[in-house]
Amino acid sequence: MSSNVTLRVGQGYDVHRLEANCPLILGGVKIDFPKGLYGHSDGDVLIHAIIDALFGATAQGDIGQHYPDTDDVYKGSDSRFLLRMTVEKISELGHEIVNVDTTVITEATKLKNYILQMRKNLASDLNLSWDNINIKAKTNEKLGYLGRNEAIEAQAIVLLNKKN
Prior knowledge:
alpha+beta, two-stranded antiparallel ribbon, globular
């Protein structure tokens, strides 16, 4: 490996509860489901986990420090907009995204027909080819709050390089 490149890894996590009368948006895609994710922004746990991973990899804290849920500026925000702002912030620090791997845990929401569009949305926002973005959809085997369809959770890991 060249001495002028530093690799950094970040891990992210988010969970939001499911509620009636809220849209279900994951990876910037509106999912047809009777409940949606409650949150200060649009509740997109997949994008929120990626944002956390990006801030983590660059030692910049977490999503709440940059886009607090106590600030009305971010109320109802499109998470894709927040993701693009995050990419701009880490780019200014000299970081480039190599790849993103994610997992969405949801019991009843079937995502297979939406994953390709999610990957394309994320690729556009992350300035990556969509084949450098992976999204896995899992269940929680009917266990706990996820198994009871009370919430949806997402986890993300990112690899960055920083040119020295």
